Amino acid sequence: MASSPARAVGHQAPVALPVDLPAHLAAAVVADVAAGDAVRTSSLVTALAAVPDPRHRRGRRHELIGVLAIGACACLTGASSYVAISEWAAAQGQAVLDCLDSDAELPSESTLRRCLQDADAAAVDAAVTGWAGGQLAAQRARAAGTGLAPVIADRRVIAIDGKTLRGSAPRSTSEQVAAARSGGGRTHLVAGYDHASGVTLGQIACSAEAGTGGEVAAAKELAAALDERGLLAEAVITVDAGFTARELAADLRERGAHWILPIKGNQKTLHSRLKALPWNQVPEAARVRSVGHGRTETRTIRLIDLQGSRDGRGEFFPGAAQALKIVRRRRTRRGRWSVQTVYAITSLDARAADPALLASWVRGHWSIEAGLHWIRDVVFGEDHSQIRTSHGPTNLACLRTLAINALRLAGHLNIAAGLRQHARTPLLPLATLGLM
After folding, report:
1. Cα(276)–Cα(310) distance, rounded to whole angstroms?
2. How far apart are the first and last CA of the chain?
3. 3-state secondary structure of 183
4. Residue 296 β-bridge partners
5. Residue 31: CA atoms inside 13 Å, Cβ hemisphere, count?
6. Alpha helices in 192-347 (DSSP H)
7. What is the DSSP secondary-structure string of 252-270?
8. Is there a contact between 165 and 186 (Cβ–Cβ < 8 Å)?
9. Angle at the Cα of 428 (from 422 to 432), degrees rounded to 5?
10. What would the DSSP string read from start to end of 102-133?
């Protein structure tokens, strides 16, 4: 095992401490990080080892954990295909096997391909997002213990949204080719994204038959997985209008989570009832102004208690405590104005959240688009990927998400720059993932 290079790389990223931090606190932070490194080294290995191997035991020459670890490290350098992963494996894969104390030979491209196609996608996602969630919790605990934790809202806020892998539709038969040309047969994923940290906490594939129509069912399955890990209690879930469904809202409340649901044209009756509420008689609850991206934006929010509001048409929505009306006024640098009105309902009552906080959570939902979906599409070229067979599209998406999570946990603000750094530093991916 090449221990000296590993240790050298592992110390390339020292802990950044405030210059005025007392010596005893600085020592405590360093000790906590060192202890956390020891936990992290075993936790990812343990997580990957829990993924069941679908291959028959007889004739198996490469352990699945080694293949998954190599794939994870390769994706951390920007690899986005089986060929790219195999090229990285040929150059640096032996270091991964050494860290796992494996005496197996390096897996070939065909072995990597078969394993990543056949591995259970739900188990792979549970492993990689469970590891990231554990690291995030450990970081917050260490920061809270040293008094360095940032001041954030008490509640965890999770954005749930779907994404289609555009190139994932199989094309083995003429029927599949025809379906792919019309947009069918594609893999569709639903992910849960932590607003505050930018870490993806889980990802579930919709059923192949339902496609995008199975988003609500996949969201319920994702909520169950997050609940098992203790992440839903008292959390706030934000979604887009496609997830505004009574069964999902009821399921989240049963699990102890609150929700904010936007109401648009797909809920015509509810949308009309919300618009008809006496908003002109309600004062502004909060006003927020922001400047950036070449525009100035002012957002005003008004709230109405739905439990005390009656329009003679019965209950507005099961579990809804308040209605929100958010008006966004934007002015570009060229002086052009635009106004957008958003209606939403929430299970949070007036005592549970400040109006300005509610508005920030509604706006923050779109961070999942910029912080996860856009990065996978543009930086990793996910929409152009031609990986189509079996669980391959979902498992590669899981490994890309793991790479983004690992970089965020390591403090990288620019994911593309972080991938380039890991690509030019041979053993850095192993250190970032805690494999050495």
Report:
1. 11
2. 10
3. coil
4. 291, 331
5. 8
6. 215-228, 246-254, 268-275
7. HHHTT-EEEEEE-GGGHHH
8. yes
9. 100
10. --PPPPPHHHHHHHHHHS-HHHHHHHHHHHHH
Helix axes 64-75, 121-146, angle to 10 degrees: 60
Q: How far apart are CA 260 and CA 280, in angstroms?
A: 22
Instruction: Determine the Cα–Cα distance for residues 100 and 92; give it in Å rounded to an integer.
Output: 14
CA–CA distance from 266 to each of 258, 269, 273, 322 (Å)? 22, 9, 13, 20
Q: Are residues 404 and 373 in contact, defined by beta-carbon separation less than 8 angstroms?
A: no
Tokens of 299: 């957002």
How many Cβ atoms sit within 10 Å of the Cβ of residue 129?
26
Torsion of CA 44, 45, 47, 52, to 10 degrees: 150
Alpha-carbon gap, residue 198 to 411, rounded angstroms: 11
Give the residue among 233, 232, 236 at the shortest CA–CA distance from 322: 236
Phi, psi of 292 (to 5 degrees): 165, 160
pTM of the model: 0.84
User: How confident is the prediction along the chain (436 residues), in pLDDT tens digits per residue?
Assistant: 333 333 333 333 433 433 343 443 334 333 343 434 434 444 889 899 999 999 888 878 889 999 999 999 999 999 999 999 999 999 999 999 999 998 888 999 999 999 999 999 999 999 999 999 999 988 888 877 765 555 445 789 999 999 988 877 777 777 777 777 777 778 899 999 999 999 999 999 987 776 567 899 999 999 999 999 999 999 999 999 999 999 999 999 999 999 999 999 888 999 999 999 999 999 999 998 888 777 888 999 999 998 877 666 778 899 999 999 999 998 888 888 899 999 999 999 988 888 999 999 999 999 999 999 999 999 999 988 888 888 999 999 999 999 999 999 999 999 999 999 999 999 999 999 998 7
Show the beta-strand stretches assigned E in 89-213.
157-165, 187-194, 200-205
If you ran DSSP here, which 8-state letter would residue 369 be given?
Answer: I
